[in-house]
Amino acid sequence: MAxxxxxxxxxxxxxxxxxxQDQLDKVILVQTREGGRIGEILIRLDIVKEDDLAYAxxxxxxxxxxxxxxxxxxxxxxxxxxxxxxxxFALKNIVLPLSKKLNTLTCALFDPLDLTLxxxxxxxxxxxxxxxxxxxxxxxxxxxxxxxxxxxLKSAVDQSYGLKDMAVESEQSMDTSLSLDRIxxxxxxxPVIKLVELIIRQAIxxxxxxxxxxxxxxxxxxxxxxxxxxxxxxxxxxxxHLAIVSRIKILARLDIAEKRLPxxxxxxxxxxxxxxxxxxxxxxxxxxxxxxxxxxxRSRVPLDFTSIGFEQKQSEEFRKAVTSPFGLVLxxxxxxxxxxxxxxxxxxxxxxxxxxxxxxxxPVEYHLDGINQVQxxxxxxxxxxxxxxxFLRQDPDVILVGxxxxxxxxxxxxxxxxxxxxxxxxLHTNDAPSAVTRLIDIGxxxxxxxxxxLIVVAQRLVRKLCMECKEAYELSREEAQEFKIKADLxxxxxxxxxxxxxxxxxxxxxxxxxxxxKKIRELIGKRASFQEIRKVAIEAGMExxxxxxxxxxxxxxxxxxxxxxxxxxxx
Length: 571
What we know:
Elements: H1 2-15, H2 21-34, H3 38-44, H4 50-61, H5 81-84, H6 87-93, E1 95-101, E2 104-109, H7 115-125, E3 128-133, H8 136-160, H9 171-177, H10 180-187, H11 190-205, E4 210-215, E5 220-226, E6 229-233, H12 241-251, E7 263-271, E8 274-285, E9 288-297, H13 305-308, H14 312-322, E10 327-332, H15 339-350, E11 357-361, E12 372-375, H16 384-391, E13 398-401, H17 407-418, E14 422-427, H18 432-441, H19 446-452, E15 453-465, E16 471-474, H20 477-483, E17 489-492, E18 504-515, H21 518-525, H22 530-539, H23 545-554, H24 560-567
Parallel strand pairs: 2-3, 10-14, 10-15, 11-12, 11-13, 13-14
Antiparallel strand pairs: 1-2, 4-5, 4-9, 5-6, 7-8, 8-9, 15-18, 16-17
């Protein structure tokens, strides 16, 4: 059968124009004399490229061909695939496990006609095998990286269970049995340093935004947040907890002796040519200190409105507001809704050698060239309000205030906007119209807000459907009417190799943008309710968060379920 298929493969390569009949005859002659397969001989004699051969073989066998360039030849990181198919077996047989779903394992094979290999895989893994085709070089290259990365972290985690000299029954006994010098010494030992480095490295590779290290009575829980969702990662041994947290504290220059109070810090790492900042938060729990590391990768921050996900009309309206000579621009939404990213994109838009731009942030998440950034430190009196008062003596053109938290900060922001400065800030409200009533409720006079406010942008982040596996379906008439969707087909999540079977990959914003026009200013002056302001804004063309979300559903970018989950309790 294999000979027949490979012979047919030769004919197909001729038909595709990749080889000539003379070349095929030459290869068949070599095969008759030396043995071997036609495909391997074609590659060896440099008659055809291996990716062309793999594509043609996939076409002949009706099996998908995937290359490393496509991004699909990437094993799922959280399914312990390296335990199902060991590294030695994978490299010897040129096979790569990609994902496991229930009792089915998808593998990339160089030779999908090797029936003995397929039978061995079934017995080894106790799974049904779904095959895809990859080239020898692609499979070996990805396998080396995958097993290297997986084995490094796995071996470090496994090692942690054997380091009994670091074991202590409880945090209380740790405090009494070990001196601070000994704790610091343990935190600087090679296994601990290696383990912490690998935890951080894998999180960065997996594009995680946060690392959670949580202590419980008999175990540690290690989780990465990817695209807004937390995923469990095989954790180190429980007795390594104090050493790991102490190592993180040392890196962030925190007090390793303080275990009763929360602590915040930061440090930076370099990965190849990228500078990555990590923001550290430590809090005491009943079983020890929990550490959360926020990963701030500057290279992944989109600094223009299109890359963020604004539509053309939204980009134009927002650009018009942030390029105004003075006024107040507000962004609203909960923590983690992308407000800071949008503010940084706005700063990048207005950045100019002729302008003096100053920010007060808590914390400074990304360092921007050409912009004076100040870190708030309330414990020494450097609050948003006190910094703002000093900023006004610094001859600023643009001021960014990380968050309006009190009436004093709000008043200074608005008075600054009225006296010739462009002020950008954030507020925690559910939607754009509520921002107006919130400011009035905390004590801002409408006559000050009316002339100063330019635009309010509310946003949320929704997960973007994986473009490789999203599944089309037809809405019922009732659903189409309820969500006002005009498209005949919409899409839902399915799951594939590229998205680690999540069905989603990356996130995009849904935006509600309220431009402050004459009618809305009149309502502000009358202290109108947010319902009245919302009604007038919609009549003027404002697209609500839900409407913008459903527009992205119509475009096939996200699913109805994802939009509704984010909008729960808002609309």
